[in-house]
Amino acid sequence: MKISTVQDDRQSFLGKYAAGDFSSYDYAIQEPGIYELRHQTAPHPHTEKLSQVIENYMSDLELTALQRDNIQALRSGHQVVIGGQQAGLFISPLYTIHKIISIIVLAEEQSKALNTQIVPVFWIAGEDHDFSEVNHAYLYNSDKNKMQKLKVASKREAEDSVSHFELTEGEMTATITAFVSQLLETERTKSIYDQLMKLPLNWTAHFKQLIHELFKSYGLILIGSADAELRQLEKEQLLWMFDHHRDINAAFHEGQQKMDSYSIETTTNVHLFMSVDGKRQLLNEEDGRYYPGKSDDSYSKEEIRAMIESSPERFSNNVVTRPLMEELMFNTLAFIGGPAEVRYWGELHAVFQFAEREMPIVMPRMRITYLDARIRKLIERYDLPLAEVVTHGLQEETDHFLQQDANIALFETLYQTTQKLESQYGEMMKLAESEQVSRLIASNLKHHLKQVDYFKKAYNKELHQRNKTVLNHYNEIEAHLHPRDGLQERTWHPLVMLNNYSLNLFDDVIESVQYTLEQQILEI
Q1: CA–CA separation, 397 vs 484, rounded Å?
Q2: Which residues of the chain have pLDDT under 70?
Q3: What's the pLDDT tens digit per position in 112-124?
Q4: Which residue, among 514, 506, 515, has the nearest Cα to 524 in the 3D structure?
Q5: How far apart are CA 380 and CA 9, in angstroms?
Q6: CA dist 131 to 155, 157, 245, 279, Å?
Q7: Rounded CA separation 411/417 (Å)
Q8: Sheet holding 519-523: strands in order across?
Q9: What's residue 129's pLDDT?
Q10: Model-level pTM greater than 0.70?
C-alpha cells in the first residue's frame, strides 16, 4: 500500500494546533516526552467498577482473547486511548472508521513506547437524540458520477436518545435492501448483505456489532454512553455537575473567550439533558427553577437532585460536560477527536481547570483518502495536482479547462453588446415623455437582456456538451476524492469501500500506517 501525505496549511486550525500556537490545552503535542508525563496519571478509584460495566456492556458479543485481556488491563488501572462518535447508519461516514483506526494505532504505538498495555476504547455516543444527523448515508452513483443520499426506511423520529430507538423488522429489511441495491455488485456484496441481515434492530446495537466485527481482533473495547450501568457509575459526577452548573457555565464562556473560538453553540446554562415524557430535553435554570426545553414543567434544585439520585439514566451530558465526564470515567492517555472536536476541547479548558482535572493529550484523528487505480490514471491523464484535488476539489481546474476551450472573443463581444444596450436604453429613458413610455423602454431592455442571457446559457450548455467526456471524468474524480465539497472520509461509506476493494481493507490500513497529523493518501 503506497502512502503519500499532504501537510496542513500553517494558517489552518490544525496547522496552528500542530505547531503549538494554542495555550488552551494541558499538553502541547509537538513537545517531546508528553506521553511519558501523562502516563504518570493515577487511575480512578472506580476503575474496577468501570471495567465490569464494560464487560457487561459487551456481554452480547463474542469477545476475542485480546479484548478480554484489555478489559482485565483496564480493571488493573491501565490507561486508555479513547475517542467516540454518534452511531451512524451502518457506521456512516468513513471518518468514524478512521477515528477507530487512529485509536488502535496510537494505542499500539504507545504500548510499545511506554512498555506497558494501553487499551483502545471507542465511546459510542448513543445518548444523542438528533436522529436527522445519523439516519442517512451517501452512496456513489456511478451512472451519474455523484453521491446520492440514502435515508433509513422509517418516517419516525428519535425524540429520546438514539440508543432507545429501534427499527421494525420491515424497516430494517427495507433499509438494507435499498442500501445493498445501490452497491456495485462484487464478490463481496453478498457477504456484506448477509452480515447486515444479522444485525439487531436497535440503532446503536447494530452500530456496535458492526464495529466489533471489524476491529475485535485488535482488542478494541466498546462502551455506550447511554448505557444504564454506566450512568449509575456516573451518578456522583452528574450530581457534582448539576450542583456546580453555574461555575461550569462561567468557565465555559471564559474558555471560549481565551481560545477566541466559539464553535460550541448551546442555549443552556445547566449543560445537562433530562428525559421527560420520552423526550431528551435540555435543562435551563431561571430564577432557581429548572425548565426542560420542550415541556411546560419546572423543577426545584432538590427535585432534580432527587431524580439524579434515583434515576441517573434519565440524565445525560451536553457538548460542554461530555468531554469532562469521559475523562472523569476513564484514565486517559490520549483523546482522539476530529478537527472540530479538537477545537472545542480547547474551548473547554477552563471547565477542566474548574473541575481540577487535567485534560489528557488531545490528538486529531488521522485523515485518510483512498486512491484507486482508475482515479489515479485519470489524475495522471489530465495532469491534475493530486494533493490540491484531495483538499480543495476540482472547481478551479474545471473552470480553467472550460475557459481554455471557450470563445473568449465571442464572450467579450457579447459583454460589449450588453454594455451598449444598457447605455443606449439609458439614453432612450432620458427622452421618455411619460411614465408609460419609460415602462415600455425598461420592458424592451429587459427582453433584450433576457435574450442575451439565453444565448450565454445555450452556449455554455454546448460548451459542456462538446467537453462531456472530460467533464464526466472530472466529476468522477471529484466524487471519489472531494465529494460534496469536502474530504472523501466525510461522505463515503465504509461498507462501500469494503465492497469495492477488500473486506480486509481496514486491516491493511492498520498494518500499513503510522500515526501522523498529516492528511494521508493511500493507493489501493
Answers
A1: 16
A2: 129
A3: 999 999 999 999 9
A4: 506
A5: 24
A6: 11, 6, 27, 12
A7: 10
A8: 2-6, 519-523, 368-371
A9: 67
A10: yes
